[in-house]
Amino acid sequence: MIELRSLSAGYRGADAVRGVSLKIPPGRVTVLCGPNGCGKSTLIKAALGMIPRSGGEAYIDGDEVSTLSRREIARRAAYMPQERGAPSISVRRMALHGRFPYLGCPRRYTRADYAAAERALERADALDIADRLLTELSGGQRQRAFLAMALAQDTASVLMDEPTAFLDAGRQLAVMDTAAALAREGRAVALVLHDLCLALRRADSIALMDSGELVTCAAPDEAYASGALERVFGVRIGRVMTGTGWQYYYE
Asked: Quick check: 101 and 74 in contact, CB under 8 A?
């Protein structure tokens, strides 16, 4: 469970996020959406104590983030960033990096760590590239590798910043399936997405941001009916009922 109360944060003395109160509860997939530069990534980083706050509070499992060490935070919440480098290591080794919060010094992987990494690779659909170097992979393949690293942390909360970027349509849906499966296990799951139609179809809750503020957090049907998505993004969104539920499209 992650809870933010009137949180404000930013860079170089300027707030990119202002007064956001939001709960990311267990058992649900919460999608953060909004125009570029609206503060989605900043919000996630501030929630995990990665950047300083200028105001408000952030809690993980009831504990204020500021009272927790980096290791304690990493054991409670996994974070998949939007931007990252590509070291010259194998995908399997990258997945094992997700086990760092549980290792002592010197770092020695246990049988349980290797098993957790393999499960994460399978879940991220990355077993086929497990022995390849990250530097040899396409952008989409790298996304699967970094997803595996986040999943290997095996945390109660999982926050992912644009995890479907660079992925083809089939693997975008697979990521959403994985997010839903994590939520069914009782984990709190939050994803930053730019694909509104995918968010409306697969999220349990949509947290819509604009200009650093939270506009609404509601179920997809409510978010759609409110017209807030169309106002914020300046697009028209239609929908049609199919055998698998509502399908959304841009008009």
From this structure: yes
What's the one-letter identity of residue 41?
Answer: S
Mean pLDDT in consecutive groups of 10 residues from the start of the chain, 251 residues: 97 94 98 96 96 96 96 96 85 96 88 96 95 93 94 97 91 94 97 94 97 97 95 95 91 88
Which phi and psi (to 5°) does residue 244 adopt? -110, 15
Cα angle for residues 161, 40, 63 (degrees, 5° grid)? 85
Tokens of 127: 């077993």
Tokens standing for 194?
A: 């730019």
pTM listed for this prediction: 0.93
CATH architecture of 2-250: 3-Layer(aba) Sandwich (3.40)
Say if residues 137 and 84 touch (Cβ distance below 8 Å). Answer: no
CA distances from 135 to 76, 84, 91, 189, 193 (A): 29, 12, 10, 29, 25
How does DSSP classify residue 247?
Answer: E
**DSSP per position, 61-129:** TTEEGGGS-HHHHHHHEEEE-SS----SSBHHHHHHHTTGGG--SS----HHHHHHHHHHHHHTT-GGG
